[in-house]
Amino acid sequence: AERIAYVESIGGTVSKDIEALDTAVVNVPASYSAAALPESPVVVTSEPDYYVTALAGPLDDPLYPDQWALPVIGAPEAWDSLPADLPPMTVAVIDSGICAEHPDLVGHVASGWDFVESDEVAQDAFGHGCAVASVLAASHNNTLGIAGVAPHVQIMPLRVLDDRGLLAPEGVVAED
After folding, report:
1. For residue 156, how far is the Cα from the chain centroid?
2. What share of the chain is helix, strand, coil (3-state, %, to 5)?
3. Residue 127 confidence (pLDDT)
4. Coil/strand/helix, residue 65
5. Is 139 exposed, middle or buried (0-12, 13-18, 19+ CB in 10 A)?
6. Residue 135: pLDDT band by 50, 70, 90 thresholds?
7. What's the chain's Rg over C-alpha atoms?
8. Which pLDDT does position 56 carry in this prediction?
9. Residue percentage of the chain with pLDDT more than 70
10. What angle is formed at CA 51 by the lines to CA 135 and CA 149, rounded to 5 degrees?
11. Whole-model pTM?
C-alpha cells in the first residue's frame, strides 16, 4: 500500500512488479531524474533504465555483432592505431591446448608443449583452451567466427588440462 501511494504521489506507473525481489519497475514523469525522486522508506534505490542495442561492426566476422565488449573497451580504435609493421608478440595460453587447425587461428599458433602427454602437440580435446585462444587472437575480417582482442599475437599453447579439463598431479593418471 505504501509503494502504491508513493508511485501515485510522483505521478508514476508500475510497468513491472517483480514479487520475488520485492521490486517494482516504475515509469516516472520526465521531470524527475533518479537523483530528484522524493525520499521515501519504500525506495531503497533508483536508477534510470538504459536502452541497450546490439552493435553492428565494421568487421565481416559473423559473430562480431555479438561481441559487445570489444567496442566498450575501445578495441576497434586500438586496432586502427596499431602500426602495419608491428612485430607479432607471443602469448602463452596455459589451458587445455589449442585447436591448431581452426581457420580463425591459422597463422597465430606458435610452438608449444603438451604437459599432459609430454609432447609438442598441444591439441585441445576439451575445447576451453581453443576458446580462450580464439578470444585472444582470432583473425579479423575473414568472414569466420569472431574477432580476437589482439589479432596480431601468436599463441604459444601450453596444455596442462586433460580432455576433461582436469589438472592431475604429476605422475597421477586420472581414471574414468
Report:
1. 21
2. 20, 15, 60
3. 94
4. helix
5. buried
6. very high
7. 25
8. 46
9. 88
10. 15
11. 0.62
